[in-house]
Specification:
Bound molecules: flavin-adenine dinucleotide
CATH superfamily of the largest domain: FAD/NAD(P)-binding domain
Number of strands: 19
CATH topology of the largest domain: FAD/NAD(P)-binding domain
Radius of gyration: 22 Å
Shape: globular
Number of domains: 3
Distance between the termini: 8 Å
Strand content: 15-25%
Largest sheet: 7 strands, mixed
Helix content: 25-40%
Length: 495
């Protein structure tokens, strides 16, 4: 049986392990942390169960597929429900807007703003739907092993049809006039660390998929997906070794042979790295001759997505909000421009997640879990220290802004449990280069064919999967990346 070593038990590492095990490969995962999931991590304290990273479940079929392909019923592993509303948006003028997942309700809400914008919204949906299908079939489902797979007439036509040159905000502005609506329908690119005001990126349409396929909730929180994959893999006879930090990929004569953990070599036929691509190439491939075009200098020069400052609060009372909510900055454009110019925003837009609104298993009775994510610059262009003082000052500032939202005026007085993750925490906890929570930025020069691919050309038997590889970041997208990596492995190493 061919032995596969996977470095990292993130979403794509776990999903890849299940896929490989289903096909009959012998699989072992080595993970530096003590829990599965990577960024899909969990902190548990005093009965509060905080999802650390991802919280928004889109494209649920991709989640379910990991289980069904291995021969079990997904519903025996995950309990999913469609959220309504999708999210609430709070504006600085004290107004708010619930974005319903029910078209009949949503149209009524939109008509109350403007009939013209309601019509524009429907046109926008159809535009997004068309573009998503083009992207899916022309780019997302393909692993580029040869230049000719990208540089061809079909790809060119698809790229033109995708209208990749406009930003998310510009796209929606073609259909809708109201600025609140424009913001509410374009901020989603921040989910993958991209500015809604900047193009070009084929990925600007990906987060809009929530408008078509909904936002789902997994009972127990997002971490349940990691736990469910871990459970399935172990049932199938796969192995996961926690607290095992891989120090090096063993490469002899251009062929990957195994990994080194605490000085001990472990050998395998195939090495699949789920550790974030730029960090892994820089730190785990020791000899420059084996790095190919990804020398350390190039990795330092590549561009990185934004990062996040997250406050995790266990509250001693209930608050009236929805599972997902966004608080918009007064000057949204300035906020975003600060963020991508590497300045920590003083009037930031931020995202609030409160799963205890609908799930009593994540917080003690009568209490509320509230996670507040502030998009911040990653560490590649600035000298932000995120030391104790800076972290505390920013925390106090964010709490003041939370207390400006109607219904949250007494927030600080009711904090019972509090945790914080800064870009530095993300960097050290999950080995993310520059603490960039979504990995390499999906700019045009780092997308599709130009993004690192599953097959590492310079070293035989070495493959990559995860956010910084094609197709990109976000749980459903890294699940696609795992599919592409396994297809390449199977092609090169049939059983
Ligand atoms: C704050 C935040 C919010 C997000 N929100 C959403 C969301 O709402 N919806 C969504 O779909 N996506 C969201 N994402 C993105 C999503 O979480 C990621 O794209 C996805 O989880 C990444 O999975 P991965 O498999 O690529 O890698 P990772 O999660 O990074 O997994 C890699 C694993 O490798 C391990 N590792 C690294 N180096 C080594 C080593 N040397 N030895 C052993 N192990 C190692 C790491 O510890 C980690 O467990 C969010 C991400 C963050 C950080």
């Amino acid at each position: 049986m061919k032995k596969v070593i996977i470095i990292g038990a993130g979403v794509s590492g776990l999903a890849s392990a299940i896929r490989l095990k289903t096909l009959g490969y012998d699989v072992s995962i080595y993970e530096k942390n003590e829990l599965p999931g990577g960024r899909m991590y969990q902190i548990e304290e005093k009965g509060f169960k905080f999802d650390v990273g991802p919280t928004i479940v889109m494209m649920p079929d991709l989640y379910k597929e990991v289980f069904s392909l291995s021969g079990v019923r997904p519903e025996d592993y995950l309990e999913m429900s469609l959220l309504n509303p999708l999210y609430t948006v709070y504006f600085s003028d004290q107004t708010k807007f619930d974005v319903s997942s029910n078209l009949t309700e949503l149209i009524k809400q939109l008509e109350s703003i403007s009939e013209k914008d309601a019509e524009g919204y429907l046109k926008y949906l159809s535009d997004v739907y068309r573009r998503y299908h083009i992207a899916k079939h022309a780019f997302l489902d393909i692993s580029y092993r040869k230049p000719s797979e990208f540089f061809n007439f079909k790809s060119l036509v698809s790229l033109l049809k995708l209208k990749t040159l406009s930003s998310a905000y510009a796209s929606i502005s073609r259909f809708v006039e109201n600025d609140h609506l424009r913001r509410a329908l374009s901020f989603q690119t921040l989910y993958i660390g991209v500015s809604p005001f900047s193009g070009p990126s084929i990925y600007t349409i990906i987060p809009m998929i929530e408008l078509l396929y909904g936002i789902w909730y997994i009972k127990g929180g997002m971490y349940q997906m990691a736990k469910a994959m871990e459970k399935r893999l172990i049932e199938m006879g796969g192995h996961i070794y926690y607290n095992h930090l891989v120090d090096e990929i063993i490469i002899n004569d251009g062929i990957a042979k195994g990994v080194i953990i605490q000085g001990n070599p472990i050998f395998g036929d195939i090495i699949l790295a789920n550790a974030d691509f730029p960090w892994a190439v820089k730190n785990l491939i020791k000899q420059p001759k084996n790095k190919g075009k990804y020398q350390n200098k190039k990795i330092d020069r590549m561009s990185y997505s934004s990062s996040a400052f997250i406050l995790y609060f266990g509250m001693s009372k209930k608050y009236k909000t929805h599972v997902h909510a966004i608080r918009f900055a007064q000057d949204f454009e300035k906020n975003i421009s600060d963020l991508f110019k590497s300045t920590v925003p003083t009037d930031p837009s931020f995202y609030m997640y409160s799963p205890s609104q609908i799930d009593s298993s994540v917080a003690p009775s009568g209490k509320e879990l509230i996670y507040v994510l502030v998009p911040t610059p990653s560490l590649h262009q600035n000298n932000l220290t995120w030391d104790e003082k800076m972290t505390k000052d920013y925390r106090n500032h964010i709490i003041k802004l939370i207390e400006e939202i109607p219904g949250f005026e007494d927030f600080e007085a009711h904090i019972e449990v509090e945790k914080v993750y800064t870009p530095k925490t993300f960097q050290s906890m999950f080995n993310l280069e520059n603490g960039a929570t979504f990995g390499l930025r999906p700019s045009m020069s780092q997308s599709v064919y130009f993004r690192p691919q599953a097959t590492f050309k310079k070293v035989k038997n070495l493959y990559f999967t995860g956010s910084s590889t094609h197709p990109g970041a976000g749980v459903p997208i890294v699940l696609m990346s795992s599919k592409l990596a396994i297809a390449s492995i199977v092609k090169d190493h049939p059983l």
